[in-house]
Write a structure and sequence with these properties.
The protein is α+β, with helices and mostly antiparallel strands. The chain folds into 4 domains: about 110 residues, Winged helix-like DNA-binding domain superfamily/Winged helix DNA-binding domain (Arc Repressor Mutant, subunit A, Orthogonal Bundle); about 190 residues, P-loop containing nucleotide triphosphate hydrolases (Rossmann fold), CATH 3.40.50; about 70 residues, no CATH class; about 160 residues, Winged helix-like DNA-binding domain superfamily/Winged helix DNA-binding domain (Arc Repressor Mutant, subunit A), CATH 1.10.10.10. About 45% of the residues lie in helices and about 15% in strands. The chain contains 24 helices and 18 strands. A 5-stranded antiparallel beta sheet has the order 4-3-2-1-8, covered by helices on one side. Strand 6 and strand 7 form a beta hairpin. Helix 8 packs across helix 9, helix 13 packs across helix 15 and helix 18 packs across helix 21. The C terminus is likely disordered.
Length: about 575
C-alpha cells in the first residue's frame, strides 16, 4: 500500500482508504490518482497521463479536468492551497504530498469500518432500487436508468444502494467518456468486464467468458485495444449469452456511468440485454443526463422504446428539499443545531443540488464567513456574516465544473447564454437579441434549441411588451451557472451589451420610462455610464424623497423588465 496524509492507496485491490473507511472511487479517477501517487514530486504532463491511461486511443485532455475535480472533492483538496495535487496551468499536475510504503497489515489493524451513513433525501429511490434487485434475484432481468443533472447524486445513490446489497452479487462498473464515443466501441463495457474479471469470482468469470465469448477475453488481454472486439452483432450476442450464463451462478450487476457519452455499440448491447427473453438474475444500471436535455439521439430513442415496451425503469433524481439539505449540512458539520439562516442560504444558492450545496459550504468556511470553535470539547460552528451580506466569488472547483459544461457548447451558444446572464436568473428573448444586436426571431429559435438541449435552461413563459407584441422568457435552473456566464465576459464587451439593453428598454417603454427606470439605471450603471444612470433614476416616483445615500449608484446586477432585480454577485 502507498500512504499519503491520512489516506492509503491499496493498489492490489484498487481502492482508497481513510482510516477504516473505504472511499468509493470509480476506476478511471482511481487510475489517475494511482499514477500521480506512484510518481510524486515531479510534473506529470497531460500527454503522459493520457498515454499511460489511454494507450493507442485519442482522448481530449479535458477528460482529465473532470477526473481531477472528482479527486479533489474526494481528498478535500484545494486548487488555491493544494495539499495533494498541484495544477500547472496548461502543462499538467504534481503530486506534492509525501508518499511512503506501508504494510497491508495496517489495514487489518485499523478500526472496523463503520457502516456508511445512508444517503440523504433519497429513501424513495433506494426502495425502488431494492425492489428491482429483488426482482432480478428472482430471475427477472432489470434495466434501470438513473437520470439527473450533474452533482444531483446519481453515483452517490448507486454507491449507497450497492453497499446495502448482500452477497453473492457480482458487480462491474464502467465509465463512458465523452471523447471516446466516436473512437472506441464498448469502452465502458470493457471497463466493467475488467472489474468482473478481477472480482472474487474472477476464475469463474474468465472461464465463462473464455467458453462463450472468447474474443472478449482476447480484447481484455490486449488492454482494451481498439478493434480487438469482433463485429458488433456477434460481439453483442456473445456477451449477452456469457452474462446470462454467469448470472446462473450468482446475480450480476453492470453499472454504466454517464450513458449520455456512450458509443452506439454500448447502447446496442444494452438494448439486446433488455429484449432477450431468457430468465436471468441480471441487473443493468445506467446513469445519464435526461436525453431530452441532450443531443444523443440513439440514447433518447432507446430509452423511450424500452420504457414504452416496459423493458426498462427510469429513476429521475430531482433537487433535495430544504429539510434534506439541512440533514446534509448537519452530517457535514457534525452539529445538530445549525446557525440561523445557513440552511436557507445554501438551499437557495444550490437549488437543492447536493454537490453545489457542499461546494458553497466549503467556500463559506474558506472565506471565514462560517467559523468553528471548541466548546466543552465539541466543535461549534457560527455564521459570522449574515446571509444577506455575504459577497464572495464562486468556489473555484465549482466554477471549473460549470466551465467544463459551458465549453462543450458552440461559440454561438456560449455567446447567447452570456448575453442572457446580463438580465438576471430570468431573461426575456428581446433582451438577448438587443445585447447581441440580432433579430428577435433568430434569437428566439436559438433559445428554444438551448432550452431543449440544456438541463440548466428552461422555458418559463411569455411576456406581453408595451407595443402589443410578445416575447418568450427563459430561466437558468441554477443562479451559479448565470454567475459563471456573466463573469466570463470581458468587461468592455459586457458594458456594451448592458448599454444596448438599456437603450432597448427605453425604446420599448417610450413615454412610460418611469415604469422601468430602475432597470434602465441599473443597466447603464453596469455599463459605466453613470450620467445616463442618474438621469434614469430621476424618473423614479420616489426619487426626490430619497436621501443622497440612497440615490448613489447601486452597483447591483441589472434585471430584465418585468423581472425582479437580482442581488450583486453573492453567495
Amino acid at each position: 500500500m502507498l500512504q499519503f496524509g491520512p489516506f492509503r492507496l491499496d493498489t492490489a485491490n484498487e481502492c482508497l482508504w481513510r482510516g477504516g473507511e473505504q472511499i468509493a472511487l470509480t476506476p478511471r479517477p482511481f487510475a489517475v490518482l494511482r499514477y500521480l501517487v506512484e510518481h510524486p514530486g515531479r510534473l506529470i504532463t497531460h500527454n503522459e497521463l493520457l498515454d499511460a491511461l489511454w494507450p493507442d486511443t485519442f482522448v481530449q485532455p479535458q477528460v482529465l479536468r473532470t477526473y481531477m475535480l472528482e479527486l479533489r472533492r474526494t481528498l478535500g483538496d484545494s486548487t488555491d492551497e493544494p495539499v495533494y495535487i498541484r495544477t500547472h496551468a496548461k502543462r499538467g499536475y504534481v503530486f506534492v504530498a509525501q508518499v511512503k510504503e506501508c504494510s497491508d497489515a495496517i489495514a487489518a489493524e485499523s478500526p472496523s469500518p463503520t457502516p456508511a451513513a445512508p444517503i440523504v433525501g433519497r429513501e424513495k429511490e433506494l426502495r425502488r432500487l431494492h425492489a428491482l434487485a429483488q426482482s432480478a434475484e428472482n430471475g427477472e432481468r432489470q434495466i434501470a436508468f438513473v437520470a439527473g443533472e450533474p452533482g444531483i447524486g446519481k453515483t452517490a445513490l448507486l454507491d449507497a444502494w450497492r453497499r446495502g446489497l448482500e452477497d453473492p452479487w457480482i458487480s462491474g462498473q464502467g465509465q463512458c467518456v465523452e471523447g471516446l464515443r466516436e473512437r472506441e466501441d464498448f469502452y465502458p463495457v470493457m471497463e466493467a468486464l475488467g472489474q468482473l474479471s478481477a472480482s472474487a469470482r474472477a476464475e469463474e468469470v474468465c472461464r465463462i467468458l473464455g467458453k462463450i465469448a472468447p474474443s472478449w477475453v482476447g480484447a481484455l488481454g490486449q488492454a482494451q485495444a481498439v478493434g480487438a472486439i469482433p463485429p458488433q452483432a456477434r460481439a453483442v450476442a456473445e456477451l449477452c449469452a456469457a452474462l446470462e450464463e454467469l448470472a446462473k451462478k450468482a446475480p450480476v450487476i453492470l453499472v454504466l456511468e454517464d450513458l449520455h457519452a456512450a458509443d452506439d455499440s454500448t447502447l446496442h448491447l444494452l438494448s439486446a440485454l433488455a429484449r432477450r427473453r431468457t430468465p436471468a438474475k441480471l441487473m443493468v444500471l445506467a446513469t445519464y443526463r435526461p436525453p431530452e436535455k441532450g443531443n444523443h439521439a440513439t440514447l433518447r430513442a432507446l430509452k423511450q422504446d424500452l420504457q414504452l415496451h416496459r423493458l426498462a425503469t427510469e429513476i429521475l433524481l430531482g433537487p433535495l428539499t430544504r429539510s434534506a439539505v439541512n440533514e446534509l449540512i448537519v452530517r457535514e458539520l457534525g452539529q445538530q443545531e445549525l446557525p440561523a439562516g445557513l440552511v436557507g442560504f445554501l438551499h437557495q444558492r444550490s437549488q437543492g443540488n447536493p454537490l453545489f450545496a457542499l461546494a458553497v459550504l466549503e467556500h463559506l468556511i474558506a472565506e471565514r464567513h462560517l467559523l468553528s470553535q471548541q466548546c466543552d470539547g465539541a466543535t461549534v460552528w457560527e455564521l459570522r456574516t449574515p446571509p444577506g451580506e455575504i459577497e464572495t466569488s464562486i468556489p473555484a472547483g465549482l466554477a471549473q465544473t460549470i466551465e467544463i459544461e459551458i465549453e462543450r457548447l458552440t461559440r454561438e451558444e456560449q455567446t447567447i447564454l452570456e448575453a442572457a446572464s446580463l438580465t438576471g436568473i430570468s431573461f426575456p428573448v428581446w433582451s438577448v437579441a438587443a445585447a447581441l444586436e440580432k433579430e428577435t426571431g433568430e434569437t428566439e429559435e436559438a433559445c428554444q434549441v438551448l432550452a431543449r438541449r440544456l438541463y440548466f435552461v428552461e422555458h418559463a413563459g411569455t411576456d406581453e411588451l408595451p407595443d402589443g407584441t410578445h416575447s418568450e422568457f427563459y430561466v437558468f435552473a441554477h443562479d451559479l451557472y448565470r454567475e459563471v456566464l456573466y463573469r466570463r465576459q470581458p468587461r468592455t464587451r459586457r458594458a456594451e451589451r448592458h448599454a444596448r439593453i438599456a437603450r432597448r428598454l427605453s425604446e420599448l417603454f417610450a413615454g412610460r420610462e418611469e415604469r422601468v427606470a430602475r432597470e434602465i439605471a441599473m443597466h447603464y450603471e453596469a455599463a459605466g455610464d453613470h450620467a445616463r444612470a442618474q438621469t434614469a433614476r430621476q424618473l423614479l416616483p420616489d426619487y426626490t424623497q430619497r436621501s443622497s445615500a440612497e440615490a448613489s449608484p447601486a452597483r447591483t446586477r441589472p434585471a430584465a423588465a418585468g423581472v425582479s432585480s437580482q442581488p450583486p454577485s453573492k453567495l
